[in-house]
Design a protein that fits this description.
This protein is mainly α. The chain has three domains: 1-33, no CATH class; 34-104, HUPs (Rossmann fold); 114-176, Glutamyl-tRNA Synthetase, Domain 3 (Glutamyl-tRNA Synthetase, domain 3, Alpha-Beta Complex), CATH 3.90.800.10. The chain has eight helices and five strands; from the N terminus they run ααβαβαβαβαααβ. It starts with 6 loop residues before the first helix and ends in a 13-residue tail after the last strand.
């Protein structure tokens, strides 16, 4: 791996390659940076052979270029999360001689901060529909949008007291609020 800490040396290299093709310039910039690859398998069940193949490709690419192989566990699907999956994945990678340079865990606190920000500033809302409600409404509505979401059970259609009660006592999701365009914009040539 080529590390350049001296800015003057870096500038000399840039001057030398000014006559190079654009693609070579991009390749040189890539070579000057450390390669980091992430493998983020699902922690909802046993490790799949396709996941192992992806991990192997990432690992070999990282090691060929003196980079890092990062294993990332995102436990955002709490309902399907299987606590044995993480251990099974690590053991499988170890058995295949794939060494993990870094382990990243979920950033739940960071996600929670941004969810609260989106809700507070009106960019998101709470959805209270059950799976049964959603299946029934999918047949009624061609597309989910502002026109239909106001017909469904969510924090846009119920009082704030009812919203607080539902959040404390029932399951909910947070949905991104997409603004409704009053006019239809059509591109013409």
């Amino acid at each position: 791996m080529l590390y350049i800490n001296n800015i003057q040396l870096y500038m000399k290299i840039i001057k030398i390659i000014n006559n190079f093709n654009y693609i070579y310039k991009i390749l040189l910039i890539i070579m000057l940076k450390k390669i980091r690859v992430r493998f983020a398998p699902s922690t909802t069940g046993p490790f799949h052979i396709g996941g192992l193949r992806t991990a192997l490709y990432n690992y070999l690419f990282a090691k060929k270029y003196n980079g890092d192989f990062i294993l990332r566990f995102e436990n955002t699907d709490i309902n399907r999360y299987d606590e044995n999956s993480e251990k099974h994945i690590k053991d499988s990678l170890k058995w295949c001689n794939i060494n993990i340079d870094f382990l990243q865990k979920t950033k739940k606190e960071l996600y929670q901060y941004y969810i609260e920000y989106l809700l507070k500033h009106g960019y998101a809302y709470y959805g209270f529909d059950t799976e049964k409600d959603l299946k029934q409404n999918n047949s009624k509505f061609e597309k989910y949008g502002i026109k239909n979401r106001l017909k469904m059970k969510n924090s846009l259609t119920v009082s704030s007291d009812e919203t607080d009660f539902i959040i404390k006592n029932y399951n909910y999701v947070v949905r991104l609020k997409i603004p409704y365009l009053e006019k239809e914009y059509i591109y013409k040539r």
